[in-house]
Every structure is written in structure tokens, then in C-alpha cells.
Write a structure and sequence with these properties.
Structural class: mainly alpha
Subcellular location: Cytoplasm
Strand content: 5-15%
Radius of gyration: 36 Å
Subunit structure: Homodimer. Interacts with FtsZ.
Helix content: over 70%
Largest sheet: 2 strands, antiparallel
Keywords: Cell cycle, Cell division, Coiled coil, Cytoplasm, Septation
Number of strands: 2
Order of helices and strands: EEHH
Number of helices: 2
Strand order of the largest sheet: 1-2
InterPro entries: Cell_div_ZapA-like (IPR007838), Cell_div_ZapA-like_sf (IPR036192), Cell_div_ZapA_N (IPR042233)
Distance between the termini: 101 Å
Number of domains: 1
Coiled coil: 56-83
């Protein structure tokens, strides 16, 4: 199992990860370290453990907010999908109605053409 070295709050940690996940793990550690550094800038030096716990809680809070937004978006997708299906059904019904009217018009034109054929004088020649 591959190992990577990451740095959080100025301390280096060796961590194992799955093959191919090294860059991802390093990126996650860099993001977490950025949270720690941001908190350190906001609250000052309050101890490594407390700072790490606060950063962890901040990250989990962001995750909870993202999950809430995902659920809201999923609900919107359901509503929009239903609306799209209703519009598609309406379009299909209108197309069927239009096709029927077009068929009626074609029959009427055929009737007119038939009458014209029957009443037209026959050319003599």
C-alpha cells in the first residue's frame, strides 16, 4: 500500500492510501491544512489539538451544508423532471390533434378535388 507524506499545521504525517490515490490524499491534506491555517489566523494559537478539532468541525459543517444543498437540488430535479414529462405529454397530445386536423383537411381537399374533377368540362378535341 503506497504511503504519502502530508503536512498539517506545520507537522508532517505519513499516511497510507490506496494505489493511485496519492495525489488525491495530498490534495485533501492541503485543503484541510488551509482550514487549519485560516482558523489559526482567526483565533490565534490555541493548541494543536483544539485547532485541529475546530478545523475538523468546520469541514464537517461545510459537508453538511453541501449535503443539504444536494438534497434541495435533487428535489428541484424531481420537480423539473415531472414538469418536463407533463410538457412532453401535452406536446404529444397537440401533435396528435394537429395530425388529426391535417388529415381532416387533406380529406376535405380530396373531396373538393373530386367535385372539381366531376364538374369540370371535358375538353373536346
Amino acid at each position: 500500500m503506497p504511503e504519502v507524506n502530508v503536512e498539517i499545521n506545520g507537522r508532517k504525517y505519513r499516511m497510507a492510501c490506496e494505489e493511485g490515490q496519492q495525489k488525491h490524499l495530498i490534495g485533501l491534506a492541503e485543503r484541510f491544512d488551509a482550514h487549519v491555517e485560516q482558523l489559526k489566523g482567526a483565533v490565534g494559537e490555541i493548541g494543536d489539538t483544539r485547532l485541529t478539532v475546530m478545523a475538523g468541525i468546520a469541514v464537517v459543517d461545510e459537508l453538511a451544508e453541501a449535503e443539504r444543498r444536494i438534497k434541495a437540488l435533487e428535489s428541484e430535479v424531481v420537480v423539473l423532471t415531472r414538469a418536463g414529462q407533463e410538457v412532453a405529454a401535452e406536446i404529444e397530445a397537440l401533435e396528435e390533434k394537429f395530425a388529426g386536423k391535417l388529415d381532416d383537411a387533406a380529406k376535405a381537399l380530396e373531396g373538393v378535388a373530386s367535385v372539381l374533377d366531376d364538374t369540370a368540362p371535358v375538353p373536346q378535341g
